[in-house]
Design a protein that fits this description.
Strand content: 5-15%
Radius of gyration: 27 Å
Structural class: alpha/beta
Order of helices and strands: HHEEEHEHEHHHHHHHHHH
Largest sheet: 5 strands, mixed
Number of strands: 5
Shape: elongated
CATH architecture of the largest domain: 3-Layer(aba) Sandwich
């Protein structure tokens, strides 16, 4: 995670006190581990358990309104006593989870209660979140009511860094092969006066198609299906020449972008050209059917 997103998540977790932190911890662990590996425990009459991890480790949450070592020792000692009486026989592990920084005295106290136990502090929580996939990170942000655009900034930064690395290491994309039918498809859809210009635009876009193909290939199938359906249905509502319909399609598909600029429109058009080539819209020549 970049520093901005990390601090936002940290601030959110640190702001949660008492049972609110337990609820936040539950939501984060459910996002990370799923309901098969993490089990929530009702906050009332929990018998000393604020959650169960991997079926054998009981968690004790600690997030006071005001911290003092004396309070920490009393709370964790009481939690451990309840754990010993109610859970220890069937659950061998016990951990303390807190949104505080762990001091040496806190760590020593927990280890004194149970030598093989650990304390998961705020930094350890952040590290665990950082190690998750982007999909899990976004569900964590949603569960904590953190706006998704903070994660978007992080993702874009990472993508750019990865692309820079690819360029520096000279790792080529797989060669992109244009379909044999594309010339027939362009002639069937585009006005004759614009054939050369449109074909030149298509040829220039071929350099970007491997990137588009890679991104589409890595996306969730349901997301790709939704995009394809949206493009088809949007294109079908327009009338006029193919060129006019495609221009309208590019405008409509990019209208929700907060900042509109020529570079964004240019890349949106490349993506629409890619889907045109992929038989998503426009008239199909017989050669496309044969080679499709």
């Amino acid at each position: 995670m970049d520093n901005i997103l990390r601090e936002i998540i940290k601030t959110k977790l640190v702001s949660l006190k008492g049972t609110a932190f337990q609820d936040g911890m539950d939501r984060v662990y459910l996002c990370i581990h799923g309901s098969t590996e993490f089990q929530r425990v009702k906050q009332k009459r929990d018998g000393g358990s604020d959650g169960i991890l991997n079926g054998d480790t009981v968690l004790a949450a600690y997030a006071p309104e005001k911290y003092s070592l004396t309070d920490f020792k009393k709370k964790t000692k009481d939690d451990f006593s309840s754990y010993s009486n109610n859970w220890a026989a069937t659950h061998k592990g016990w951990r303390v989870v807190t949104n505080l920084e762990a001091t040496a005295q806190m760590i020593q106290h927990v280890e004194k209660l149970k030598p093989d136990s650990t304390i998961i502090c705020i930094e350890a929580l952040l590290q665990e979140i950082n190690e998750q996939t982007w999909s899990k990170k976004i569900t964590i942000c949603r569960s904590l009511n953190i706006p998704e655009h903070y994660l978007s900034n992080d993702v874009i930064s990472t993508v750019i860094e990865d692309l820079i690395k690819i360029c520096e290491e000279g790792q080529p994309f797989e060669p992109y092969k244009k379909p044999a039918y594309i010339q027939d498809k362009i002639k069937l859809n585009v006005s004759e006066d614009n054939w050369d210009m449109f074909f030149d635009e298509y040829e220039e876009s071929l350099a970007i198609f491997p990137i588009v193909s890679s991104v589409v290939g890595c996306a969730r199938q349901e997301s790709v299906a939704a995009i394809r359906s949206k493009i088809r249905s949007t294109y079908s509502i327009f009338s006029g020449s193919f060129e006019c319909k495609m221009n309208s399609l590019v405008e409509i598909m990019g209208q929700n972008k907060a900042v509109q600029d020529d570079y964004y429109r240019h890349n949106m058009r490349i993506v629409m050209l890619y889907f045109f080539e992929q038989c998503l819209y426009g008239k199909k020549p017989s050669s496309e059917t044969i080679n499709g």
